[in-house]
Amino acid sequence: xxxxxxxxxxxxxxxxxxxxxxxxxxxxxxxxxxxxxxxxxxxxxxxxxxxxxxxxxxxxxxxxxxxxxxxxxxxxxxxxxxxxxxxxxxxxxxxxxxxxxxxxxxxxxxxxxxxxxxxxxxxxxxxxxxxxxxxxxxxxxxxxxxxxxxxxxxxxxxxxxxxxxxxxxxxxxxxxxxxxxxxxxxxxxxxxxxxxxxxxxxxxxxxxxxxx
Length: 212
Hints:
The chain is of the alpha/beta class and 212 residues long. The protein has helices spanning 2-15, 37-48, 85-96, 110-120, 178-182, 185-188, 192-211; strands spanning 20-23, 58-60, 72-75, 100-104, 127-128, 158-164, 167-174. Strands 2-1-3-4-7-6-5 form a seven-stranded mixed sheet. The protein is globular and about 40 Å long. The two termini are 25 Å apart. The model is unreliable at 1-16 (pLDDT under 50).
């Protein structure tokens, strides 16, 4: 049975190798925030990183088997995030089977997502990713690590991660808010230089997830 399930997962990855899903989680947080961010990031990544990602961003729930259709899942919001037991079991299986979760810290998300990540992998420690990690050195180079995009609490940005058996399975951009930088310029009125920096870092994350 495990072999059949594994083969099913591999087949899903092959047929959906260039797609991204956004997690519709429980808890009341606005999982749907920053609606223009991922379409803009996909367009940028396809243009500069030789990807062919589907521009239609799928919405999936954490407990759905559909998560296995996507090599990378994205999660953001400003409020509470809650994973029930079914969510935890399914997401954990997805991540240890080769999936990747990118979390972008919108203001108000942090204390909730840290709690849920501890439920997801109780024995793993959320740790800062070193600046020489490959995620900062894909098509674009970030020798100083995660860039600062949007101000929250006057704290330095941190690229945090969970590593399972040596593989980075969760990337959490904390105090950076990359997804704000991906949105249409009219939304946050970020300078073009900041927007491009955010898009480049986002493209690196996607590249890394596809390769690993």
